[in-house]
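Predict the holo structure. Ligand: sulfopyruvate.
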Amino acid sequence: MNTSNASLARWIDEVAQLTKPDSIHWCTGSDSENEQLIAQMLERGDLIKLNPSTHPNCYLHRSHPSDVARVEHLTYVCTSSREDAGPNNNWMAPDEAHRKIDSMFEGAMRGRTMYVVPYCMGPIDSPYSRCGVQVTDSPYVVINMRVMTRMGTEALRRIERENQFVKGLHSIGDLNPERRLILHFPEELSIKSFGSGYGGNALLGKKCHALRIASWQARQEGWLAEHMLIMGVQSPEGRTHYIAAAFPSACGKTNLAMLVPPDSMPGWKIWTVGDDICWLHVGPDGELRAINPEAGYFGVVPGTNPSTNRNAFEMLRSDTIFTNVALTADNQPWWEGLDEGTPVVDWQGRPYRAESGPAAHPNSRFTVAARRNPIYSSLADAPEGVPISAILFGGRRREVAPLVYEAFNWQHGVLIGAGMASETTAAATGQVGVVRRDPMAMKPFCGYNFGDYWRHWLSFEQRAKKLPRIFHVNWFRQDASRRYLWPGFGDNLRVLRWICDRCDGRVGAQETPIGYVPHKQDLELTGLNLDGATLDALLNVDADAWRKEIEAIGAYLDEFKPRLPNELQDQLRAIAAKL
Ligand code: GTP
Ligand code: SPV
Ligand code: MN
């Protein structure tokens, strides 16, 4: 018996009887355990050691070429009533779902070790944190969970104290895409994932627990689980505003959270609290407070270089697990967007040939401890979280959405989130670059009906004494020749500065039908080569384009009737009338 918790011990017994592993290993999270797992993976060829003089303690893992991203079409929310999952989720009845996936788990761990991974999402001593136990037959998953969560003995002790945890059962199976399913049972607080070893499908603490299951729990308990970064923006006067921002997958959260200020803004400092997931609670003071449930970053590699993000680039120089990047002749990791080195082996381990596509997979990832981040916030581990001044929504929009605009009020802000759209990216399998609605960047992650979810968002007007202001940003406007109009990355601080000024009531704004847009003179643009016409284009609200956009949002929201809150339709009608 490895735990004093009877329900955990019983569940592990049941799972072992179903999956029939050769042995069972309860993970403690210790250094020596981690070293043993790495040694064993190196021996089997599941990990490759990278150049120890340039990248000490760094490893490369190559996943199966059919298993490189989240699989949204194979991801289900299994609630007793189909309506509770909503049109935003794939749905399967719980009985049928268990039957289907249990037949895949039958004997799946024969010849393998079953790892029992207790973990805590959030600071180990925070009342806002929640625990889980993942069972997996993948050592790659174990070493990643150790970086991404508070994993091991301390988490197990908390589980034994609280007697509540999310059950996550995972096997990589034979990686056959025909036998792959990611199932969520929010009513049972459980997850079953089969046939994939990729991040969002397999590291069950992340999207499966901290978003899909947690969003369900959050609605019942009166808080929010969101796909948001959390960052502190400190002005030269020393005042820090905390901002939470929801952008869809591969749309700039990690980069914004680790932003390096431009030379022309001396004295500004950025502090990272989190880069992907945010749990928001109304604190004792009636303000919204945020914790980051994760302990590491599972970030997009391509595009990372000293000029886009020096912090991230430096962080990846040691103690990092790379997945699906390319290699140079001297065994350094290589990816598109790196301005030095030459790839000789591609992400699949083949000799690199330019005509066979990118050297690194476009969704290649790094796993690294948050503590490695040079600008990791001293409040990132605070049990009480940080107070949030502003919430940002944003996506990749070539057209229509201006650089930044502010909501008139909370209800309008919820509508802005609900109406968000973005071009699809390589983070999920399927076509890339297609505009789709992605409300609050939660389309793939909300564990229940969006109609109920928006109602829950609206309810915070009653729950909180003071709410953050809501903004929409778009770093991705392009001209006719597909060039970005805005430099992005560090220069995004110029927009954050305006947002902080708005929060402090220090600047006015121009009222448009869709929200408040900056007066040009209020944006700090020193040191930028931005001509007047480009700035006009970035801030322009095109009435024709917006009439079409509002119509499209209306048609999308209608899909959620009868659960769609009237407030959102009223907000939409008001904008349509102004346009
Ligand atoms: P997930 O981990 O999938 O949730 O992604 P994310 O939202 O954290 O996105 P990330 O910061 O990793 O950025 C994804 C891609 O967008 C990378 O290739 C970046 O180089 C690029 N990117 C990020 N910020 C900007 C920006 O401000 N402008 C432009 N043009 N590209 C950006
Ligand atoms: C995302 O796709 O939003 C990610 C990567 O952050 S994954 O963990 O795979 O979900
Ligand atoms: Mn993400």
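Residues 205-221 form the longest helix (17 residues). Residues 226-295+378-578 form a domain with the Phosphoenolpyruvate Carboxykinase; domain 3 fold (CATH 3.90.228.20).
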